[in-house]
Structures are given as structure tokens and as C-alpha cells.
Amino acid sequence: MRPEKIDSLVDLYGNSLYKFCRKLTANKVDADDLYQETFLKGVEQCHKIDESNNPKGYLISISIYIWKSNRRKYARRQNLAPDMDMDDSFLLSDDYNLENDIVKRELYDCIKTAVNCLDDKFRIPIYMYYTVEMTVEDIASTLKIPSGTVKSRLYKARALIKKRLEAVGYGSTSTST
Amino acid sequence: MDQHQHQHDSIDLLLKRTLNSTHSPDEVLNQKIKKRMKEKMNMERTRRKSVYKVSLIASLLIIVMSVGAFAAWNYLSPDELAEHFEYSVLSEAFKGEDAILINKSETSGEYKFTLMGIVSGKGLGLTSFSDDYDIDTEESYIAVAIEKLNGKMPDIQSEEYGNERFFISPLIKGLIPWHVNVASLDIGGYNESVIDGVQYRLISCSSIEMFADRGIYLAVSSGGDFYDTNAFTFDFESGEIIPNPDFDGVNVIFDLPIDKAKADPKKVEEFLNERYQGDYVKEMKRIEIHVKAQQYFDEEYQGDYQKDEMKASLQKLLDGLFSGEYTEEMLEEMVENAIFSKKLEEDRSNPEIVQQQEQFNKLIDELIIFEASYTEEEIKIKVEQFMDSIHDGSYTEEMLDEMMARVKESLQR
């Protein structure tokens, strides 16, 4: 990719990348920091970014690398001070009502906790699939693992989350939402 | 839709709703990033020009300077490396009196390893972001550089990065290296980066100064992230650890010149007693005997693999070397281990068994890979098909149950 075009990646993929950084770091300050460092690193690597071949995935891979390299710096605060400005996307259903809201919030908090407790090899593909909405093939090429391995990790992650939900009393996951 | 599919869809829907995010970057942040990206692009262009100039000078200097001196000049210094990882306290420590700057290189295979320096102390890992860090933690930090003799180390973004993995760790003379190394020194870990074709690793671990009077090494080997018993030879008598010349990979050993006055034998005693849950001298002797037995069966024993015969032969050997230091229980255990190892080796060289294992692995892959989860009944049918293929249709219910248990265990992993 030509260096003078590199900043166009911010407009094209900034939103997706930012959502991913928020999930990895679980707080705004660290997410902003990681987001910024990813793009700056992208400048160094611009000769490796192919606009026609999953550039979003390449940025995600830079993000993962920076996050792993600086784990102490991006202190994992999920268990200490969870982000207070929560996503409210789940409230945007047509049948929203207050009574269901509390039940749903508890369920979704439980799911988020379950995901946070997963090993990185399951957690990262889960975020890439559900938060960044990448395909299995794009996840595979980003993480440099076979598609079959991506599928198996998604499958295993879902099974682990389901098990955790059942353990805390969400026995029937066939909800009517 | 069957129940499994329904539940699968429900989890899928829940995850989509929960993990979908409305967060987006501030416009101010985006503008700031774009500005910094442009500034960085301009700096990169200027830097590249400078690097070419410096490289030309460097090429000329090689002719007149010694290799050791050149190596020291060309790398980041340990304090610069610490700064690169944003360990400002550590960076200052590497400039201080307690730091030991070594800059010694060894080559092995196609690599050159340079031990840059080491520093130990309290609170060295503190950064502005580590709010849950214990500043009373006593740690050691070791800076190492890895280069290819011909070419550059792969950048972290490249596909080749990580293809060659290195185990780098302090080892203590006289202590079993596969027991006492960076993985077992409480807070062991590392930061790594590739800068200008040189791979740098900053290793951190619980302070090793306490072992100073025993002798400390820094070991490097290839092929994995953990200690490889094939890479080094440990002499139980002298306590020395040396690279194994027959190792199929890279292996080097450095001496870490830590001041013996910093040794703390009492702390070492506590560490070892905790590590070995009591009598570490006795435990080390037990392991030495096991290792000797294993070597004997691997390299010297010529008899049949019959338990009684093996026991008698081993007992004769051990009476000569370790009389009164082993028990009947240990003798039984060592012989059983040897028989098991032999069987494993035979299986590996039996094409039929190898083929069965491959078919089993394929079965597990098939069960895992398909997202629509199989029911219990469907898994049983698959396993029965597998058993038919390897036993030609003749197997017992017990064998089928055993195989089902193996499959379920594999699916749990």
C-alpha cells in the first residue's frame, strides 16, 4: 500500500478496529491507546498491507501483536473496574420493555464474563467473528491458522460459554429473544 | 430443527447480540491519529536516508574494528531496549551501578546470540500502567539479542516470525535444569521485539542473585519455549550444564557473572524446600537414579524386556552406584517406565498402529470441525464405523465403550 494512502485506513476500518480494541482492553483509555498504536505501526508496515487482500485483518493482527507484547501495560481491568459506558445495542430491539431489560442485562453480563474468562486462543476468534464480523476465512488468514481450526475454536468457545451459562442457572439457552 | 441445532442457534444469537458493539472512535482521536501517521511517514522517509548513510559507514568500519566491539555498537543498549518496552524504571536501572553489561556473543547453527546485560532489583517492572504491580517484587531482567548470521531475523508481522522458537533462560549450576528455569522462577516471562533485523528479548524472572555462589548460566536453545533435555547435558555430580554436541538445533550457554557476595543461601534453601516439598537433596538423588536407569535401558541393556530379568540387571547396576539410596518401589517403577517407553517406540515404528492413530485423529477432526454438533447417537455411529475399519468388523462392546471414552476425552480438549 502506498504510504500516502495509509491514513485512508482510519476511515475505512477505524470503526471495526476500535470495537475490537475495546473488547481486548475493556476500557476506553487503553482501547484508544491500542487503536492509535495499531495505526502508527501500520505506517511502518504499509508496504505489507495489500488493499485487495483483507487489510482489516492485517490491522487486527497488528493490534493483537501490540496487545500481547504490552500486556502489563494494558492491564486487564475486566475484574477490577469494568467499563461503565456499556454497549446498549441489545436494547435496540422492537420489543424492549423494562421488565425484560433487567433480565437481559444480567444474561448479557454473564455472557461477557464467560467470554472474558476464555483462553485467548478462543476469545480472540470470538471477538473477530462476533464483534468485527469477520468471516471464518478472513479470521484464518489473519491468525495464520487453518479454517478448520477457526471453526473448531468457535465451536469449542460456544460450548464453553453454554456450559458456563448452565452452571449459573441459565439452563435453557433457547431464549425467546 | 433438532434440539442441538436450536441450542446452537440460540448461543450464536446471544453472542451476536452481546458482543456486537456500538463503540466508535472519537472524531478528535481519528484526526489526531491521521496527523501522527503523516508525521511518522515523513520521519520514516528521513530515517531511511540516514540508515543508508550509517550502513555505509558501518561497512567501512567493519574492516578496521573487532567483531566484539562492532556488535556492542550496533545493537540497542539494554536501557534502550527497556525504554522501547516502556519500562522506564528498568531503563534507569540498566544505566546504574548494579547493572552488569556483558555484550558477549556465541554462535550456533545459523544464529548469533548476544548476552547484552542483566540487572536485578525491586520494582524494576513498574510502568505508569501497571497499577496492580507489587513494587517489592525482586526481579532479574536479562537482555538478549538474536541475529541471523546471513540475513535478518523475520519481522514480527511476517509469516516466518515464530517459525523458529527459542528457549532462553537462566539455569543454576547444581540444580536440575528442567526443574529450575525461567518457567519455574515464579514470575518468569519475556517481552520481544524485532528492530532493524535483530530480535531482542527482555527476559524477566524472580531474582536469581540468590543463587550467585552456585554459578549461574544463561542457556539458549531452539525448537520450543520450554527446556529441552536433549539440548543440554546435566552432570549430577559436578552440577555442570553444557550444550549437547549431538543436539539437532542451536544451543549455547553463557556464564552470568553475578557477584557472589549477592548470594543468599537461606533464601535458596527456602526456594528449594518449597519447590521439592521438603527434602530437595533426597528428591534430586531420586531423580538422578531415575535418569541413570533410563540411560542404562536406552544405551546399554542388551537383555529381553522381561520384568524380572530387567529388575535383576538394573539392581546390579544400582547396587554398584547407589547402594542403599533406592527402594524396591523405585526399582519397580523404573523397570515399568522402561517397558512402557519400549512399547511406545515399537508402536511408533509399526505402520499399522501409526495408520490407526492417523485414522483416529481424522475422526476427531471430523467431529470437531463441523459446526452442527453431532448427537450422542451420531457420534456412536461414527465411532462404530471407525472400529469396523480398524478391526475388520470384529470387536467387543467393551472395546467400543473404551473407544467412545477416548473420543469424548479428545473432544473435551
Question: What is the topology?
Answer:
The complex is a heterodimer of chains A (177) and B (413).
Chain A: H1 8-25, H2 28-44, H3 55-69, H4 98-116, H5 120-131, H6 136-143, H7 147-167
Helix pairs in contact in A: 1-2, 1-3, 1-5, 2-3, 3-6, 4-7, 5-7, 6-7
Chain B: H1 3-19, H2 27-64, H3 67-74, H4 78-84, H5 88-95, E1 100-108, E2 111-122, E3 138-148, E4 166-172, E5 189-195, E6 198-206, E7 216-222, E8 232-234, E9 241-243, E10 251-255, H6 265-275, H7 280-299, H8 307-322, H9 328-348, H10 351-369, H11 376-391, H12 397-412
Antiparallel strand pairs in B: 1-2, 2-3, 3-6, 4-7, 5-6, 7-10, 8-9
Helix pairs in contact in B: 4-5, 7-9, 8-9, 10-11, 11-12
Describe this structure in words.
The complex is a heterodimer of chains A (177) and B (413). By secondary structure, chain A is mostly helical. Chain A has seven helices and no strands. Chain A has two domains: 3-80, Orthogonal Bundle (Rna Polymerase Sigma Factor, Chain: A), CATH 1.10.1740; 88-167, Orthogonal Bundle (Arc Repressor Mutant, subunit A), CATH 1.10.10. Chain A has helices at 8-25, 28-44, 55-69, 98-116, 120-131, 136-143, 147-167. In chain A, helix 1 (8-25) crosses helix 5 (120-131), helix 2 (28-44) crosses helix 3 (55-69) and helix 6 packs across helix 7. Chain A is globular. Residues 76-86, 88-96 and 173-177 of chain A have low confidence and may be disordered. In chain B, helix 4 (78-84) runs antiparallel to helix 5, helix 8 (307-322) crosses helix 9 and helix 11 packs across helix 12. Chain B has helices at 3-19, 27-64, 67-74, 78-84, 88-95, 265-275, 280-299, 307-322, 328-348, 351-369, 376-391, 397-412, and strands at residues 100-108, 111-122, 138-148, 166-172, 189-195, 198-206, 216-222, 232-234, 241-243, 251-255. Among the domains of chain B are: 48-264, Immunoglobulin-like (Sandwich), CATH 2.60.40; 280-338. Chain B is globular. A five-stranded antiparallel sheet of chain B has the order 1-2-3-6-5. A three-stranded antiparallel sheet of chain B has the order 4-7-10, with no helix packed on it. Chain B has a two-stranded antiparallel ribbon with strand order 8-9. The chains are: A mainly alpha (177), B alpha+beta (413). Chains A and B meet through helix 1, helix 2, helix 3, helix 4 and helix 5 of A and helix 1, helix 2, strand 5 and helix 10 of B.
